[in-house]
């Protein structure tokens, strides 16, 4: 294991770690794009496969792969989770529920943003179960590949596979930070600039400092609203929306 030297210096050892991470991301991303292209070519056609690979590669994966950050792993396993969710809504085999649990678990270890996708799938698939129950009691119902009796046991399989995948991460977070679901990115949005955000993380990098936080000290929407006017919050929302939309439609060069 290698500890980063600190917020004010980057050593040669740090740079070597970052370079290894970047090359790992690039290799993993290129390998995934090759497998994705082969799968799409077998299912659809070569032009469709090229279109998917170019869109996924240049639109999301490759621009992030050259940086030492969790997004490349998160994007790949979020996409795999989403595909499995769609397939499970069509044919809910138990092994498909297990894949959703494992893929979403790996994505969660990169970034916790996968949780809403899993929650939406559970809700939509439960509505699918209700609709299947209605059809089963309706005259002239049609036969489908979706098996109602697999649903709730499948959700159990999904949750167990997810917990088994993220279990070591939750245990480590509970031991080091005092909260199994602790995540610094969950606090980032409540700071106005990167400098204050980075300083807060450095000042609260231990379990003791995090547990000592009171509700009045912990970054949250309640505390942000108490220290900012409605006009300031609306200006930030509008400015952030414009910035992200402009970056999406007119991406510019980012300095390494």
Structure description:
- The structure is a single chain.
- This protein has 256 residues and is an all-alpha fold.
- The chain has 11 helices and no strands.
- The longest helix is centred in the N-terminal third of the chain and has 32 residues, at 12-43.
- It is globular and about 65 Å long.
Per the principal axes of the C-alpha atoms, what is the gross shape?
globular
> Which spans have pLDDT < 50 for at least 5 consecutive residues?
none
Give the % helix.
Answer: over 70%
Tell me how many strands there are. Answer: 0
Mean pLDDT: 85
In what range is the share of β-strand residues? under 5%
Largest sheet properties: none
Order of helices and strands: HHHHHHHHHHH
**What structural category arises from helix and sheet content?**
mainly alpha
Q: State the end-to-end distance.
A: 25 Å
Give the count of helical stretches.
Answer: 11
Our Rg estimate from Cα atoms comes to 22 Å
Write the layout of secondary structure elements.
Blueprint: H1 12-43, H2 46-65, H3 71-90, H4 94-110, H5 115-136, H6 151-177, H7 185-188, H8 194-203, H9 207-211, H10 221-227, H11 230-249
Helix pairs in contact: 1-2, 2-3, 3-4, 3-5, 4-6
Features:
mainly alpha, 256 residues
Task: Please sum up the structure shown.
This protein has helices at 12-43, 46-65, 71-90, 94-110, 115-136, 151-177, 185-188, 194-203, 207-211, 221-227, 230-249. By secondary structure, the protein is an all-alpha fold.
């Amino acid at each position: 294991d290698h500890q980063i030297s600190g917020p004010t210096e980057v050593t040669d050892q740090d740079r070597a770690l970052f370079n290894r991470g970047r090359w790992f991301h690039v290799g993993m991303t290129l390998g995934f794009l090759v497998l994705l292209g082969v799968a799409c070519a077998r299912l659809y056609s070569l032009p469709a496969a090229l279109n998917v690979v170019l869109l996924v590669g240049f639109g999301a994966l490759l621009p992030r792969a050259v940086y030492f950050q969790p997004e490349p792993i998160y994007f790949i396993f979020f996409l795999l989770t989403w595909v499995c969710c769609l397939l499970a809504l069509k044919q809910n085999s138990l092994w498909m529920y297990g894949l959703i649990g494992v893929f979403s678990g790996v994505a969660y270890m990169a970034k916790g943003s996968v949780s809403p996708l899993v929650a939406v799938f559970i809700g939509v698939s439960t509505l699918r179960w209700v609709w299947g129950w209605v059809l089963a009691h309706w005259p002239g119902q049609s036969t489908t590949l979706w098996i109602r009796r697999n649903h709730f046991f499948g959700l159990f399989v999904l949750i167990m596979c997810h917990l088994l995948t993220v279990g070591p991460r939750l245990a480590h977070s509970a031991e080091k930070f005092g909260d199994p679901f602790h995540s610094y990115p969950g606090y980032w949005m409540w700071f106005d600039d990167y400098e204050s955000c980075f300083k807060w993380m450095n000042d609260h990098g231990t379990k003791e400092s995090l547990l000592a936080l009171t509700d009045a000290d912990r970054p949250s929407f309640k505390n942000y609203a108490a220290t900012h006017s409605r006009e300031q919050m609306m200006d930030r929302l509008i400015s952030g929306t414009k910035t992200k939309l402009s970056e999406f439609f007119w991406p510019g060069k980012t300095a390494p």
